[in-house]
Amino acid sequence: MRSAIPLIDQTIIEFTSVAPLGIEFNISLFANKSNMDSSKKLISVEFEIFGLVQDVFFRKYTKKTAKRLGLVGWVINAESGTVQGLVEGPEDKVAEIKNWLENEGSPESRVDKAVFTNEKEIDKLSFESFTVNDYD
User: Fold this and answer.
1) What is the pTM of this model?
2) 110 catalytic per annotation
């Protein structure tokens, strides 16, 4: 007996194969589009980080941290000298990166202030990955 449970934000890949003795069998693979637990509340939040945050690999480390946490969004150096961005993902992981942005940052950075705005619950992710963008 075969049963399937529909899963949110997943791709199903199905194919048929023939074994050496001519036995045919079907294979279904379920591939997550992200490593997020779909049962968790998704959050989106914009951020702006003030201090010594440009030319110290802040964006690179932000992307690395976001990827490790399974978050999506973007980060950019602003002309004003700050770093701005948007992050989306499970509420607990968004809280982790907010803490990292405010209290840790890249090894050579100095965060004077972190401002988080437009925090809201979302139904689905708007991005497929976390990207580092050029100047605003």
Assistant:
1) 0.71
2) no
Task: List the catalytic residue out of 2, 26, 32, 59.
Answer: 59
- H helix count then E strand count, the chain: 2, 7
CATH code assigned at 57: 3.30.70.100
Identify whether 77 is a catalytic site residue.
yes
In a domain, 17, yes or no: no
Q: Which of 2, 77, 99, 118 is catalytic?
A: 77
Residue 80 inside a domain? The answer is yes
Give the distance between the most distant pair of CA atoms in the chain.
69
Q: Which stretches of the chain drop beneath a pLDDT of 70?
A: 1-39, 135-136
User: What does the mean pLDDT of the chain come to?
Assistant: 83
End-to-end CA distance of the chain: 56
- How many domains is the chain partitioned into structurally? 1
